[in-house]
Design a protein that fits this description.
The strands form 3 sheets. Strands 4, 5, 6, 7, 8, 16, 17, 18, 19, 20, 21, 22, 23 and 24 form a 14-stranded mixed beta sheet that branches. The chain has an 8-stranded antiparallel beta sheet with strand order 10-9-13-14-15-12-11-25, covered by helices on one side. It has helices at 13-36, 65-76, 90-102, 375-382, and strands spanning 43-49, 54-59, 80-85, 110-115, 122-126, 145-149, 153-155, 165-167, 170-173, 180-181, 185-190, 193-202, 211-214, 220-224, 238-243, 248-255, 261-269, 277-282, 286-303, 307-317, 324-325, 332-336, 343-355, 366-374, 385-386. It is mostly beta strands and 389 residues long.
Length: 389
Amino acid sequence: MPTGTSDPSVATGSARRIMAAQTPLLAAATRIKALAGDEGSGLSGISLDVERRRVHVWWKGSPPTRVTNEIARQRRTGVAIDVRPGRYSERELRDAARTVLAHRAAYPGLLRIGPRYDGTGLEAVVDRNGTRIAAGPPLAFPVPTRVVVGPAAKQMGRVDDTAPFWAGGVARPVGSSNRCSTGFAVIRYFLWWESMRGLLTAEHCSFGGNVGFTTGVGTFIGTAGPPPTAQSAPHSDSLIITTSSTGAAARTFDGGVGVGEFSKPVVGRADNFPGQFVCTSGAATGAHCDIRLTAINQVVILEPSFTIAEGVALGTQISGGPAVGAGDSGGPVFTLAADPAKVLAAGMIVGGLGPVSCGNPQQSGCLNQVAYVDMGYLLVAHQVSLLTS
């Protein structure tokens, strides 16, 4: 653990203003999503329009009273919320995407599939060899699906961290040349005492797990067990690097790599909504903000390993700069908390799309869009809790 301190100036002034504006919108959206529940919910989707200070909610049928009451309460506090009809619920669309995934061979060239957040159906991204899907695949899509041609999500280290280790440091599998990043610290309890603590990282860094990980200078972090097997979250592309009870802390690196490097405490978790802004902080290319989410709940097929990742959010760096780079996989994605010196965990980097200049001759492999697994999905997959300060 280096001596870098928490610094509220981590994000640019622009990013801080954006996230300050989105704080009440994110709180309202999170509350509505929680009240919607999972079983039988008609929620089709929620998106944020941060520039216009609005929350858009799509619902199949009529929202229950508990939701309409909350929307009315939020409006009284000054949060603008509109409710629009949705054709399908989010749950129906996620089930439809899993049906397609189960018959993947019948959809040649498929790279990604997931719900459109307005509840109108699915969107499928295919490579140029998969355009025949648009003319009618061997199996029809189970719901209306917009098919577009796009790039594959490419799999995507700070170097000399020491215990207690933080998110955003280098993670190297022992005996491998792969270089990835550490994710947020997680913890598991048995009754009231701690039974496990560790750091997330991407499974495609070391398929099958059961391997030790070190920092960039060879300091041993811990050993990752096998990937999770939870049926409710089967494709998380994640491992937990198990540490001692003092070997992982609720902090994340921020700023640059080597230069301008510091850290912030992790104080909670953030849900993900289209239109929301997030920051990434992988060990290879450092922190990037002004990343606007364009899709959530996606199933992505990562190249070149063809790893399947589910529960994926996609975000684009709005000024055309990098959102992520090679070696950032496994690293943290976060939003700033109401106190910008603290962060809320949003997910774990698994890939990116759209090559761009890194803006730094010491870095390469940068991409304008990030693909990351939602933090809630990861916690369900491993049956753990987020470690917070």
